[in-house]
Amino acid sequence: MARISGEPRAFREAAEQLRGARFRSELHVREIAAPERIAPHSVAFAAGVSGGRGDDAEGDSPYGAGRLVLLFDPDSAEEWGGPFRIVCYAQAPLEVEIGIDPFIADVAWSWLIDALESRGARYSYASGTATKTLSSGFGTLESQGEGAQLEVRASWTPEGPGFAAHAEAWSELLCLLAGLPHQEGVDSLGARRARQRAEKAGA
């Protein structure tokens, strides 16, 4: 759990907003031990995508998993652009035919930005990476065949009082990476995959 003793009021209030965020129902979200050396005060959460078969994704889910950390350090305000900084990670497996899409990393990053903006989560100093990985099994792992994975690592400075919106945007990003439909109608990987198959069938 988050550290309580000596926590500044601004950090306590922000952390409580994160705890009260409305995460997507397909996720199992839990508070985890926060890093202690990055900033004087921090709170962290982990999420796993449920497999839909009674799996609560208590650990890192094979369907998709992520981390969200809120950092508070007034001494870093000049570097961060404010006393708070959010760091997030989200990853999920892909079908190989999606993994070879040359624009899939761009799409993943745009989902994060769209999720933040659609929830009115004000931010600045955003940075990060979107990485796709393709793999092939050999030897005793040959039966695994080919695989692909997509991950997003990002950080940004939250502005304004609405910290829950930032956590909800991370929740949306993780679900989209896992191929679940967007709650507001934007294409997920599943929709993108179906469209590609339709295009191939019509070729």
From TrEMBL:
InterPro entries (alphabetical): DUF3000
One Pfam family named in its UniProt record: DUF3000
Protein known as: DUF3000 domain-containing protein
Provenance organism: Leucobacter chromiisoli
